[in-house]
């Protein structure tokens, strides 16, 4: 009996020839990551363990991104705890102005490679599955233990294979594919499982779109999402790293808990209405929802290709007078490139603001918090009650194309409505 | 020793954003977090909850972010245990790691209401509703997870291991 790619990575990290879904294994970790919200708790726990140094400073990463540049004194104190610990440990640390959102920054620096086991104190750590890594989010105590020992325990997840066939219509992106998938299986449809994304549509899908899909695997309850390593993956890695890596592929006779096939040829740009990412509808079926704000950015959709799509739609148009449109680059690199390509000019001319790189509004931190009764179309990942501000505010999830079109029309809109 | 407590019942997909909204994640102080526990699903909850109470909820409890602040806020508010039809995996790990008992008992959840009194025997995986007198099976933990619970959380379990390794090295 063969193994899936997730099983192969965990078997290798456990020093075993094979592992079975459901069993608990201890694995060596290749990268451990925390951010300004989760690091202070991890550090406090780490200090209780009676060890002085992290297991390997080259494998421990700290990224200030959630509430930075510091939104208030308390947030500043949290960031300071992390910065001081990172520097004292000589660990990998990305300072503001040379970094950005963790899940955008780490792949840009070639830190997320095929075959690795990556854990992070952030639920969207599953993003790195786009690079054929086994990557999953954990809490601060798990991360503290891993920072000390270089190992963690994992229950080997069953794998659900998703096969995407057909032809992707215009303006239908990785975001629409993952929203559609979550809409079909529900927010606990892949609970504890690994989602393996395959099929001819995936083979053609650009890396940025794959990253968006892996990023939201957690929104289906999954432990992780994973893609095979192909020419597109290798092309990305060749630009950013000279480190060797060992890709894994699923065996033809691998066992799957389920195989689910979607023909995506007739898909339209989608939105997820409040208050669950599974509450998915075609954008052109909900035209009667006026909006107050649009956010384009985040670890889900803050990459260059996302800003390009938004700019393509906003070029020569104006953000609706009643709407605040906030564009947030996922990293300093994205900001630099967007500036060079003239995207920033397009946003500013359209009446949008172009922010520093931050997670900020996605989790109601700052830089776009919603008032009572306000509604926002956002390219982020969660539309839970109160996620972006007041508990009676609403978040509607969408792709950058839908978000930009909505910004122009002042209501939920499909990009096809603009001529 | 079985634990007993008064029930607060919630629905499906209770996410970590409503358990502890991100606007409060500028601290790791458990008492400060406890003041806002469940605030965006029930703003009165922090004022109503009493030490020893039990949260009962539907499917996928704790979905969303990895913030350990969520189980910490629940525990610091005095909640003794969470019983749910199912748990989101990061929340489940976090709860076990910090010593907040989490019990999977779907049938018990469906037949329990706010105000009921529950008796939970985590060791034997039994939940009893004292109002109805009915007894339910809860999912049993693996030996590995029980080990973490017996040690009083992941940190203690790992510390024991590190100390054992150090002692072995010193003895060589």
Automatic annotation (TrEMBL), chain A:
Heterodimer of LeuC and LeuD. Pathway: Amino-acid biosynthesis; L-leucine biosynthesis; L-leucine from 3-methyl-2-oxobutanoate: step 2/4. Keywords: 4Fe-4S, Amino-acid biosynthesis, Branched-chain amino acid biosynthesis, Iron, Iron-sulfur, Leucine biosynthesis, Lyase, Metal-binding. One of its GO terms (molecular function) is 4 iron, 4 sulfur cluster binding. Binds 1 [4Fe-4S] cluster per subunit. [4Fe-4S] cluster binds at residues 299, 359, 362. Pfam families: Aconitase (PF00330). InterPro entries: Acnase/IPM_dHydase_lsu_aba_1/3, Acoase/IPM_deHydtase_lsu_aba, Aconitase_4Fe-4S_BS, Aconitase_4Fe-4S_dom, HAcnase/IPMdehydase_lsu_prok, Homoacnase/IPMdehydase_lsu, IPM_dehydratase_rel_enz, IPMI_cat. Catalyzes the isomerization between 2-isopropylmalate and 3-isopropylmalate, via the formation of 2-isopropylmaleate. HAMAP family: LeuC_type2. One of its GO terms (biological process) is L-leucine biosynthetic process. Its EC number is 4.2.1.33. Belongs to the aconitase/IPM isomerase family. LeuC type 2 subfamily. It comes from the Bacteria. Transmembrane segments: none annotated. Its cofactor is [4Fe-4S] cluster. It is an enzyme of class 4 (lyase). It catalyses: (2R,3S)-3-isopropylmalate = (2S)-2-isopropylmalate. This is 3-isopropylmalate dehydratase large subunit. Residues 8-284 form the Aconitase/3-isopropylmalate dehydratase large subunit alpha/beta/alpha domain.
Automatic annotation (TrEMBL), chain B:
Its EC number is 4.2.1.33. GO terms for biological process: L-leucine biosynthetic process. It is an enzyme of class 4 (lyase). Residues 37-102 form the Aconitase A/isopropylmalate dehydratase small subunit swivel domain. GO terms for molecular function: 3-isopropylmalate dehydratase activity. Pathway: Amino-acid biosynthesis; L-leucine biosynthesis; L-leucine from 3-methyl-2-oxobutanoate: step 2/4. The keyword rRNA processing does not apply. Catalyzes the isomerization between 2-isopropylmalate and 3-isopropylmalate, via the formation of 2-isopropylmaleate. Heterodimer of LeuC and LeuD. Belongs to the LeuD family. LeuD type 2 subfamily. This is 3-isopropylmalate dehydratase small subunit. It comes from Thermomicrobium roseum. The gene is leuD.
């Amino acid at each position: 009996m063969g193994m899936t790619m997730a099983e192969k990575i965990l078997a290798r990290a456990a020093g075993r020839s094979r592992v079975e879904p459901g069993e608990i294994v201890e694995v060596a970790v290749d990268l451990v990551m925390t951010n300004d919200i989760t690091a202070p708790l991890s550090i406090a726990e780490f200090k209780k363990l009676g060890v002085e140094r992290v297991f390997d400073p080259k494998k421990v990463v700290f990224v200030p991104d959630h509430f930075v540049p510091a939104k208030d004194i308390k947030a500043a104190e949290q960031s300071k705890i992390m910065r001081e610990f990172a520097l004292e440990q000589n660990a990998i640390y990305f300072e503001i102005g040379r970094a950005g959102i963790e899940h955008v920054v780490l792949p840009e620096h070639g830190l997320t490679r095929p075959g690795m086991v990556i854990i992070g104190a952030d639920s969207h750590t599953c993003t790195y599955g786009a690079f054929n890594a086994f990557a999953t989010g954990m809490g601060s105590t798990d991360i503290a233990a891993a920072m000390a020992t270089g190992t963690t325990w994992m229950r080997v997840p069953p794998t659900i294979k998703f096969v995407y066939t057909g032809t992707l219509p215009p303006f239908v992106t990785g975001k629409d594919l993952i929203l559609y998938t979550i809409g079909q299986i529900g927010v606990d449809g892949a609970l504890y499982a690994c989602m393996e994304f395959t099929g001819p549509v995936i083979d053609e899908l650009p890396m940025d779109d794959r990253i968006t899909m892996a990023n939201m695997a957690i929104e289906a309850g999954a432990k992780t999402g994973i893609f095979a390593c192909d020419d597109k993956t290798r092309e990305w890695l060749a630009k950013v790293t000279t480190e060797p890596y060992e890709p894994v592929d699923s065996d033809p006779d691998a066992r799957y808990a389920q195989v689910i096939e979607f023909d995506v040829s007739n898909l339209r740009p989608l939105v997820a209405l409040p208050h669950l990412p599974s509450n998915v509808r075609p954008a052109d079926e909900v035209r009667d929802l006026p909006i107050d704000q649009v956010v384009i950015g985040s670890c889900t959709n803050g990459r260059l290709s996302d800003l390009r799509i938004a700019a393509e739609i906003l070029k020569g148009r104006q953000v609706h007078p009643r709407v605040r449109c906030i564009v947030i680059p996922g990293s300093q690199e994205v900001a630099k490139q967007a500036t060079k390509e003239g995207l920033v000019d397009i946003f500013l001319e359209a009446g949008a603001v172009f922010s520093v790189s931050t997670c900020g509004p996605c989790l109601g931190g700052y830089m776009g918090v919603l008032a009572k009764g306000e509604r926002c179309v956002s390219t982020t990942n969660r539309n839970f009650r109160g996620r972006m501000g007041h508990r009676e505010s609403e978040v509607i999830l969408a792709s950058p194309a839908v978000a930009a079109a909505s910004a122009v029309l002042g209501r939920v809109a499909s990009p096809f409505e603009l001529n | 020793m079985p634990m007993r407590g008064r029930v607060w019942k919630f629905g499906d997909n209770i996410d970590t954003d409503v358990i502890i909204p991100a606007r409060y994640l500028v601290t790791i102080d458990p008492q400060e977090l406890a003041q806002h526990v469940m605030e965006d699903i029930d703003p009165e909850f922090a004022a109503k909850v009493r030490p020893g109470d039990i949260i009962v909820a539907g499917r996928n409890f704790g979905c969303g972010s990895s913030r350990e602040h969520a189980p910490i806020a629940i525990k610091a508010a005095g909640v003794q245990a969470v019983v749910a039809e199912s748990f989101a995996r990061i929340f489940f790990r976090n709860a076990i790691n910090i010593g907040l008992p989490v019990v999977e008992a779907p049938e018990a959840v469906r037949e329990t209401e706010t105000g009921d009194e529950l008796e939970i025997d985590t060791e034997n995986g039994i939940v009893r509703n004292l109002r109805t007198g009915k007894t339910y099976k809860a999912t049993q933990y693996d030996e590995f997870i029980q080990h973490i619970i017996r040690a009083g959380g992941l940190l203690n379990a790992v510390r024991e291991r590190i100390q054992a390794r150090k002692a072995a090295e010193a003895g060589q």
